[in-house]
Design a protein that fits this description.
The chain has about 140 residues and is of the alpha+beta class. The chain has a domain of about 90 residues: Immunoglobulin-like (Sandwich), CATH 2.60.40. A hairpin with a 2-residue loop joins strand 3 and strand 4.
Length: about 140
C-alpha cells in the first residue's frame, strides 16, 4: 500500500469539500488552482496558478457573475515500480466554480496563458456599472 497515494486522495477529497464553502477554504487555503481576483471599476482580473497544464485542456465558462474553470493536470512523475517518496504537487482533473464580484460580459472576456499562469480579463457589463445621474433644474 502506498501511504502517499492515500494522502493525495485525502487532499483531493479535502479540496472537493472545501470548494462547497470556499471563502478560501475557511482561510486555510489549498483549493486548486490558487486564484487572485481583483475588481476594478471596469473589469475583474483573475490570475490562476496552473503550472504543468496544457492550456488547450483548460475549459473556462463565464455566465453572468459565475466562473467555472476546469481541466486536467497530467502527472510528470516517471513511470516506475518504485513508490513515490513524497507527492505534493497536484495532478488529476479539477473543477473550480466561483461567484465573481460583479456581472461580467462573457463576449469580451479574454484569457492568456504564460509561464504557468492563466490571466483572465473579464469586463464588467455596462448595464451593472454605476452611472452618474445628472440633475436637471427647471
Amino acid at each position: 500500500m502506498n501511504e502517499f497515494r492515500i494522502i493525495e486522495d485525502l487532499h483531493r477529497l479535502q479540496n472537493q469539500f472545501a470548494s462547497l464553502w470556499d471563502p478560501f477554504v475557511a482561510a486555510g487555503g489549498s483549493v486548486y488552482p490558487a486564484l487572485n481576483i481583483h475588481k476594478g471599476s471596469d473589469q475583474v482580473t483573475i490570475t490562476a496558478l496552473v503550472s504543468g497544464i496544457d492550456p488547450d485542456s483548460l475549459d473556462i465558462t463565464v455566465s453572468g457573475n459565475q466562473l467555472r474553470l476546469s481541466g486536467e493536470v497530467i502527472s510528470g512523475a516517471p513511470k516506475s515500480d518504485l513508490g513515490a517518496n513524497r507527492v505534493e504537487r497536484f495532478h488529476g482533473k479539477f473543477q473550480r466554480s466561483l461567484e465573481l464580484p460583479a456581472e461580467v460580459d462573457p463576449e469580451k472576456t479574454t484569457a492568456e496563458f504564460k509561464n504557468g499562469i492563466l490571466h483572465l480579463t473579464l469586463p464588467i457589463r455596462e448595464s451593472v456599472k454605476p452611472r452618474k445621474i445628472q440633475v436637471q433644474s427647471k
